[in-house]
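Dear colleagues,

As part of the handover before I leave the project, I'm documenting each prediction I ran so the next person doesn't have to rerun anything. This entry is a single chain, and its sequence is reproduced below.
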Amino acid sequence: MSDIPGLLRRGADASVGKTKSQRIADDVADRLVSMDATAVGSLALTNMIETLYENGWQPLDLVHVVRRQHTMAVTTLAAAALLHQADLTDADSRAPQDWVDQMSSICEQFPKVATRVESTPDFLTAYLTSSGKSDYIAASDQWLDVLTLLGQWQTLPRWPQLGPKPSQWPRTRPTVSGVAGPDSPNTKMLSKIRGLLAKADATDFEEEAETLTAKAQELMTRYSIDTMLLSQGHIDIHGRRVHVDGPHAPAKAQLLHVVGTANRVKAIWDSEFAVATLVGAPVDVEQTELLFTSLLVQATRALGHSPEAKKRKKAGSAAFGKAFLYAYAIRVGDRLTDADAHALEEARHDSGDLLPILAAQTVAVEAEFDRLFPTAKPMRGPRLDAEGWDSGQAAADRADLSR
């Protein structure tokens, strides 16, 4: 038993990164099959998760980095380990709501895992036997998944802390007073914005989608202003990570950046892990992610339907697609800024001079961004395909901004 932790470390080192050795990993996995190692393996995963949380990582971050690099089997194991650790630590009743929402998202993505996670410390015993495969080779492959997961997670660096660490959570999450009910004006406004964006995503008519998206941006700006006025000068700044999948992840991150800029949110892109971090007022961050998701659907559809792409059969071209999405992002950013300015002008007529409160929020956002990312640098733009650029600009002019 005493050499199991050492075997796990050796196998993890051999499974991922510069020290990768399939021969060593296979040998360690074979040895673990013949040992009573599941309890120690469960503890190793749980301890790894707790260390990563204290180092700034959050649940969906850990799923994302595994999914990008490894098989669905390893990703599913990651989800099971995260849910198991949350159950052991009673995270559902202690963690901030955003953290609880992330765990709920993992349950939705991996429903079979969510129903079979064991509350006992040795969850690996149940997990590794749940597939119904009991032969030696299958068991060895499952231990390889465990080693791969440990190896991937142990390579992760310290990240900026976007909220309280688990070690800082209270025993019971405080009850939030004044939570908006389904009939509150704020809830109704958010529902209206989501409805507009859903219509924009669904329509096949680009002009209609463009009108809907512009209307949604105006409503988002007005909702943001109303929230600021109601806060009576109290400025709360929030950080959230957005996981961006390929292809063309940097171009998609550019789209997120321009949506954030139009909504007074700063964004920074981590190309190594394909993760963007948004910093801004909570309502602005929430609305930025909503609009980004909608515009990404529209942009992907526009790329597939682009006349230029069809003529030249370039829709699948990496250069064309990248240029298309970059151009789409920049042009959409201009249009969102115009819609935001229009909404701000209307708000000034109703509420008076908004410059002081907007300036105060900008200062607060900049200060928090600089605290989290003191060494951030502007990203250089790539060389782009001219035809893809022109096609992307044209598609952005047709995009529906009202969702």
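Residues 318-351 form the longest helix (34 residues). The longest strand covers residues 238-243.

All the best with the project,
I.
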